[in-house]
Amino acid sequence: MIEVSIDIKASRTQVWQAWIHPSHIVHWYFASPDWCCPHAQMDVNSGGSFCIRMEAKDGSFGFDFKATFSKVLEESTLNYTLEDGRLVEVNFSSNHEGTKVVWKFDPESENPVELQQQGWQAILHNFKTYVEQSLVA
């Protein structure tokens, strides 16, 4: 599994809410400024699913990121399986900064591992910025 993580200066409750609610997800779930997340749907329960739409802002490309939750522990853990069968784990824990988010995922075979790690880390950086500037400020 590939792992990315980040420390966020916000409570675990604030971080959890920003991670699971579509009204927040659309503001941060993309890896670069030339992309956006026009909509997201979440059913955050074991057996529930999500669909997060990611698109290039110029309309040249887009895709739905879909998965089914296998484990949901409120404000602590989200495990899910992507449509292609890859496993993902997200863990939230309190620390001296506020909250640490650790995101682990099985790599896909189309892109180099380093590129995948950079992309997912970039999404985490967007998340941190959104939470700290929008929810905590």
- Helices and strands, in order, run as EHHEEEEEEEH
CATH architecture: 2-Layer Sandwich
Q: Specify the CATH homologous superfamily.
A: START domain
C-alpha geometry:
globular
Strand content: 35-45%
Unreliable segments of 5+ consecutive residues: none
Task: Describe the overall structure.
The chain has 137 residues and is α+β, with helices and mostly antiparallel strands. It has one domain: 2-Layer Sandwich (Alpha-D-Glucose-1,6-Bisphosphate, Chain A, domain 4), CATH 3.30.530. Helix content is 26%, strand content 39%. It is built from three helices and eight strands, in the order βααβββββββα. Strands 1, 2, 3, 4, 5, 6, 7 and 8 form an eight-stranded antiparallel beta sheet that branches. The longest helix has 23 residues. The chain starts with a strand and ends with a helix. The model has no long low-confidence stretch (mean pLDDT 94).
Features:
eight-stranded antiparallel β-sheet; alpha+beta; Alpha-D-Glucose-1,6-Bisphosphate, Chain A, domain 4; 3 helices; 137 residues
List the helices and strands and how they pair.
Layout: E1 2-8, H1 12-20, H2 22-25, E2 35-36, E3 40-42, E4 49-56, E5 62-73, E6 77-82, E7 87-94, E8 99-105, H3 113-135
Antiparallel strand pairs: 1-8, 2-4, 3-4, 4-5, 5-6, 6-7, 7-8
Summarize the structure in short:
26% of the residues lie in helices and 39% in strands. The chain is α+β, with helices and mostly antiparallel strands and 137 residues long.
